[in-house]
Every structure is written in C-alpha cells, then in structure tokens.
Amino acid sequence: MSAPRIDLHTHSTASDGTTPPARLVQEARDAGLDVVALTDHDTTSGWGEAADALPQGLRLVRGAEVSCASGGISLHLLAYLFDPLEPVFAAARLRLRESRVGRAELMAKRLEDAGTGVTWQRVQELAGGTVGRPHVAQALVEAGVVGTVGEAFTSEWIGNGGRFHVSKVELDVVEAVEMVVAAGGVAVFAHPAANKRGRTVGDDVVREMAAAGLAGLEVDHVDHDDAGRAHLRELAAELGLLTTGSSDFHGENKTVQLGAETTAPEAFERIVALASGVPVL
Ligand code: AMP
Ligand code: FE
Ligand code: FE
Ligand code: ZN
C-alpha cells in the first residue's frame, strides 16, 4: 500500500471557495486523497454537509482558518479538530464573521459609487457563507472591470492597502493560538512565508506563537518559494514544531488543485494525537 495522501487546507462555499462542501469531499476522493481538512475562513458552517457526504475511504479533518494579526500585519491560523461549541473561541469566530459583513458592504458601496457596476446586493448573492474579498472580486469580474479574481488583488482595487480595500477585525495571533488550544484544537500557522500577498511576520512572532502552544507550520504551500520552505523547515526543527503541506484549494477562485501539496502521515498523526475537541471522521 502506498502512503496516504493528506491535504490539510481547503475552502468551500461556506467561505470563499466555489465548491460546496459535499462536492468538495467527493472531489477530494476523486483526486486520490485519503485525508482532507475543510478549513473555511472563520466558520465551521460547512462541517455538517461535508461529514454527511463523506465518501468511503476518505477521512475528514474538521477545521477553520482564523483571521489574525500581529503588529499590524495580517496572518492566518489553521485550527484543527477544536470543539465548535467552546464558547470563547465560538464568540471570537462570530465577531470575525460579523465584522466581515460590514467591511464587505463598505468595499462594495465604494466600488458602486466609483461607477464600477459592483453592488452590495450582488456581492451578497455571490457569498453563500463567510463573505470575503474573493466575492467582491467575483463581482468585479462580472462587471467586466478585471479579467480574473486574482487581478482584483492589486493596489488599484482590493489588494492589501489598495484603493478600495477595507480592513476587517482580526484576532491577536497569540490569543488566537491560546483560544484554539483551550477549545481542544491544534493550531498551525498557515502559509507563514506567502510574502507576495502582503507583508509577513518575522521569526520572532513564530517564536511567540510557539510559546503559546502553536503545533506546526504550513511549509509546503503554493505561495512559498524554495528558500522560504527551507527556512521554515529549519525554524520548525529548532522550535519542535511539526510541518504540513496543503493545497489551500479555493475551487475556481484560484488555480491550485486539491492535493497539489500534501502532509506527511507522521505530522498528521501528531495533529490527531494532540487534538481533544472533535474526532477525525
Ligand atoms: P479576506 O479574508 O476577505 O480579506 O480575503 C482574503 C482572501 O482573498 C484569501 O483567503 C484568499 O482566498 C484571497 N486572495 C488573497 N490574495 C489573492 C490573490 N492574489 N489572488 C486570488 N485570491 C486571493
Ligand atoms: Fe480564502
Ligand atoms: Fe490563508
Ligand atoms: Zn486558506
């Protein structure tokens, strides 16, 4: 038997992916995966549908990707197998989602005022779950303003610091790590070296996160170059952190495919052993 194929970071229509959770687990199995994690932004709302549709031979890691910040720099924290009802972390996720609505409305109204043809009504229709900039970007594509979702992420439009960008509420990343752990979950720093999308934090922040209970670093990610991956592997070894690899699949909102990057079985087993919130299905 060959080694299991494990992809620990994907998005569905519960946030800013374009694949419904039920179809995502089917596509994951069709792509030859043995384990997939569903990690929608700031929400667990896709968990039930994915679990109900889980095909034979595929295991599901229920997770989320949490919007965080450190010293004014945005970053993402993957949280796996936490108890979704634990009240402190649940309240934090709710705050994050509520803030996303107001900021998306502001971005949409500014784009409408600028005569782009984008409307808040249309952005809301495009967002089935957690609303995010990719939904605003889809509206810009529909309006013929940009050619692809990716092209909206520039200083001209809604890229970080862009003309129409509005920031959202984010959790202090050290507090977020503590919250995930307190909810029985396992915290992994998502794409720590994805510096093409905006500023990234230094190793000092990773050290603080590790001291707060961070379990791992997502090393193999499409937005990381070879030097970034090598550095993260060294840092993980030094701090005793596990390393993961994942696709960060977003359906048609990005070009990356399910299983494009994978996690070693030993790292996956360590995550399972550390978790006490909910089981792997
Ligand atoms: P938000 O969480 O609403 O601020 O939006 C951030 C999301 O936009 C990320 O999770 C990605 O899904 C997406 N995103 C960021 N940069 C890009 C890009 N250059 N191309 C396509 N999608 C992007
Ligand atoms: Fe996303
Ligand atoms: Fe992310
Ligand atoms: Zn992601």
Question: What is the strand and helix layout of this fold?
Answer:
Elements (H helix, E strand, L loop, with lengths): L5 E2 L13 H10 L4 E7 L5 H6 L6 E12 L2 E8 L6 H27 L6 H7 L6 H10 L28 E2 H10 L3 E4 L13 H10 L3 E5 L5 H14 L2 E4 L19 H10 L7
Parallel strand pairs: 1-2, 2-3, 3-5, 6-7, 7-8
Antiparallel strand pairs: 3-4, 4-6
Helix pairs in contact: 4-5
Bound molecules: adenosine monophosphate (AMP), fe (iii) ion (FE) (2 copies) and zinc ion (ZN).
The site of zinc ion (ZN) has 5 residues, from loops.
Number of helices: 9
Task: Spell out the CATH superfamily of the domain at 6-84 and 172-274.
Answer: Metal-dependent hydrolases
Averaged pLDDT? 97
Q: Which band does the percent of strand residues land in? A: 15-25%
Report the principal-axis shape: globular
Characterize the structure shown.
With 281 residues, this protein is α/β, with parallel strands linked by helices. It has a domain at 6-84 and 172-274: Metal-dependent hydrolases (TIM Barrel, Alpha-Beta Barrel). Helices cover 37% and strands 16% of the residues. The chain contains nine helices and eight strands. Strands 1, 2, 3, 4, 5, 6, 7 and 8 form an eight-stranded mixed sheet that branches. The radius of gyration is 18 Å and the shape is globular. The mean pLDDT is 97. Bound molecules: adenosine monophosphate, fe (iii) ion (FE) (2 copies) and zinc ion. One fe (iii) ion binds next to loops.
